[in-house]
From TrEMBL:
<protein>
    <submittedName>
        <fullName>ABC transporter substrate-binding protein</fullName>
    </submittedName>
</protein>
<dbReference type="InterPro" id="IPR008869">
    <property type="entry name" value="MlaC/ttg2D"/>
</dbReference>
<keyword id="KW-0732">Signal</keyword>
<dbReference type="InterPro" id="IPR042245">
    <property type="entry name" value="Tgt2/MlaC_sf"/>
</dbReference>
<dbReference type="Pfam" id="PF05494">
    <property type="entry name" value="MlaC"/>
</dbReference>
<feature type="signal peptide">
    <location>
        <begin position="1"/>
        <end position="20"/>
    </location>
</feature>
Length: 207
C-alpha cells in the first residue's frame, strides 16, 4: 500500500484538457503530463539524470513541511525548530527516494480525473478525485485505483499535502508508524530512524 501511495504522490493526473493554470485540476494535470514526458526519455530507463529531473520538477508542487507536521501529529507541537527542520528534511528525502527507485513502473500509467473538485475550509482546501491505472503487472492488473489528492491554496498557488489511495491516507499511514517510534524513542529517535532508512535507500540507488 505504501508503494502505491508514493506512486500517486508524485504521479499526478493524466489529461490534455485545457484548464486555467491556477486551479487544483491544472496543477495535477500539468504536472503529470510533464512527469510522464520525462519518464519516457531514454526508453524509460530509471537513470540518475531522469530521477533528478523528475524530483526537481515535482518537489515544489508539494508542501512537505505540512505533510510532515500532519504525519508526526501531536509530537510536532513539542518539537524544537531544529527537530522540525530535520523531520521535514528526512521525511521528504524518504518519500522522494522511495518513489524515484520505482518510478519507471509508472511510465505507461493513465488516469481519469473527476471534473468535480470538492472545496473545504472556505475554498482554501481542495480534493481532486481520480482513477489511476498503472499499466504495470504489479498485481493490480488494469483495475483502476481510486486516488484523492488534497491541496491547499498558498500565496505561491495550490500545493499538495496529502494523497489517499482507496481511502488510505499517506499521512495517516505514516502517522501510525511515527507515533510508535516517538513513543519508544522520542522525536530524536524518529529522526534517527528516518536517517537510517534514507541511508539504506541511498545505498540501494547507487548499487
Amino acid at each position: 500500500m505504501k508503494k502505491l501511495l508514493l506512486t500517486t504522490l508524485f504521479l499526478l493526473g493524466l489529461s490534455t484538457q485545457a484548464i486555467a493554470a491556477d486551479t487544483p485540476l491544472a496543477l495535477i494535470q500539468d504536472t503529470s503530463a510533464q512527469v510522464l514526458e520525462l519518464l519516457k526519455k531514454d526508453d524509460g530507463k530509471n537513470t540518475a539524470r531522469i530521477r533528478t529531473q523528475v524530483e526537481t520538477f515535482v518537489i515544489p508542487k508539494f508542501d512537505f513541511t505540512r505533510m510532515t507536521a500532519l504525519a508526526v501529529g501531536r509530537g510536532w507541537r513539542d518539537a524544537t525548530p531544529e527537530q522540525k527542520d530535520a523531520l521535514a528534511r528526512e521525511f521528504q528525502t524518504m518519500l522522494v527516494r522511495t518513489y524515484s527507485g520505482t518510478m519507471t513502473r509508472f511510465k505507461n500509467a493513465s488516469v481519469n480525473i473527476k471534473p468535480n473538485v470538492t472545496l473545504n475550509n472556505e475554498g482554501r482546501e481542495a480534493t481532486v478525485k481520480s482513477e489511476i491505472t498503472t499499466g504495470s503487472n504489479n498485481g493490480n492488473g488494469s483495475k483502476p485505483v481510486n486516488v484523492d489528492y488534497v491541496l491547499y491554496k498558498t500565496a505561491q498557488g495550490w500545493k499538495v499535502f496529502n494523497v489517499s489511495v482507496e481511502g488510505a491516507s499517506l499521512v495517516t499511514v505514516y502517522r501510525n508508524q511515527f507515533s510508535d517510534e516517538i513513543r519508544k524513542n522520542g522525536l530524536d529517535g524518529l529522526i534517527r530512524a528516518l536517517q537510517d532508512k534514507n541511508a539504506k535507500l541511498a545505498r540501494g540507488a547507487s548499487a
